[in-house]
Amino acid sequence: MHPIVASRNRSILYVAAWIPVTVLLMGIVTRGGTISLAQAAVILVPMCFVYAFICQGSWYLCVAVPLRQTSAGRLCATHATAAVVCSTIWIGLGWLWAWTLDSSGYVDGVQRRFLAQMPILFFSGLLLFSLAVALNYLLITFETSQLAEKKALELQILTREAELKALRAQIDPHFLFNSLNSISALVSTEPAAARRMCVLLADFFRGCLKFGSEPRIRFSEEMRLAEEYLGIERVRLGSRLQVECDVEPESEACMVPPLIVQPLIENAITHGIAPMLEGGVVRVQAQRYGAGLKIVIENAYDPDLAPKKGAGVGLQNVRMRLANLYSGDARLDIERADARFRVQVQLPCESGS
Fold first, then answer.
1. Is residue 31 in some structural domain?
2. CB-count burial class (<10 Å; 0-12, 13-18, 19+) for 53
3. CA nearest to 56, candidates 17, 24, 97
4. Do 141 and 194 share a structural domain?
5. Strands, DSSP E only, in the chain?
6. Which of 243, 288, 294 is nearest to 266 (CA)?
7. Does one domain contain both 104 and 241?
8. pLDDT (tens digit per residue) in 200-259
9. Residue 179 covered by a domain
């Protein structure tokens, strides 16, 4: 569809642009005094109205003869021919209109006066058609640029969504693998605990299915998922696992990506608390700071133990998810000091609807 016709605002601007053109042509044809201003208005207002629509047809010619894909010779010859044809048709219609006015007696002698102005009007028609061609090439370039930008944005969004799905797909099997190993270890030694762990695991994955498909969930819901996960690990580790939570009430309404906290707690337990015979404490803190949310997961670890295979996978996934979701406005920092492992996440606190 023609870009000017497709937009109401563009149509209004296009028609408005022809008003000064009409006034200018009226001034040109009345300069010698052979035709009055009133006669010029009677002739040129309808003529310019018609030529405004004729010049719009140049858009289809510009589409058929692309600017960057056509040689300069063919480009000039095509538009020059079209300008001559359109200007000739315009002048012919103007002469017919002047003849009608003269024959009806509405404006005596106007046909003769119009004939004297035909050369200048013909030249003006060529110039106006050329300006319409230039305008349409500008519109085509602008539309092409907008379309390319839109497609690039859509591709970027699709790529980001694919990355997020891949990262989330890595998180879920990673946790399931560890949980099934724990259940397997409990089956022979503590069957009741294994059954209880299966129930807790089902509840946790039910929550993951409920919230995991959402782009954002409340931080209170995210902490509920984390608590369900901690319930599973308490069955496995017993008194060796102690948890301290300090979550400010103001932080609970913040919207966060689902399954952001759970991998951090899982990393703290799997690579920090579980390998130590005496166990340890996992501290979870969350607080608002201005327009942001700060989450801290801290745990003890044995610096003398060799890192387990797969250590850091969960942290890397969370870091990449934050980078993709917040485009640099969120960060994950890691600190190791005095046999303490500390992970701090800072991200914007988005309000829920």
1. yes
2. exposed
3. 17
4. no
5. 217-218, 241-247, 254-256, 280-289, 292-300, 331-337, 340-348, 350-351
6. 243
7. no
8. 888 887 877 777 667 889 999 999 989 988 988 888 788 899 999 999 999 999 999 888
9. no
| pTM for the whole structure | 0.54
Residues 194 and 261 in one domain: yes
Hey, what amino acid is at 345?
Answer: V
Last residue of a domain, one of 134, 152, 170: 152
SS3 284: strand
21 and 144 co-located in one domain? yes
Give the tens place of pLDDT for each residue, 108-138.
Answer: 777 888 888 899 999 999 999 999 999 889 9
Residue 160, domain member (yes or no): no
CA–CA separation, 220 vs 234, rounded Å?
Answer: 21
- Closest listed residue to residue 176, CA positions, set 144, 147, 212: 212
As a whole number of angstroms, the distance between CA 281 and CA 298 comes to 8
Distance, CA of 14 to CA of 21 (rounded, Å): 11
Task: Give me the long-range contacts of 272-276 (CB less than 8 A, separation at least 24).
Answer: 272/299, 272/300, 272/301, 272/341, 273/237, 273/240, 273/241, 273/299, 273/300, 273/301, 274/237, 274/240, 275/301, 275/302, 275/305, 275/308, 276/240, 276/300, 276/301, 276/302
User: 227: domain range?
Assistant: 190-351
CATH code for the domain in which residue 309 is found: 3.30.565.10
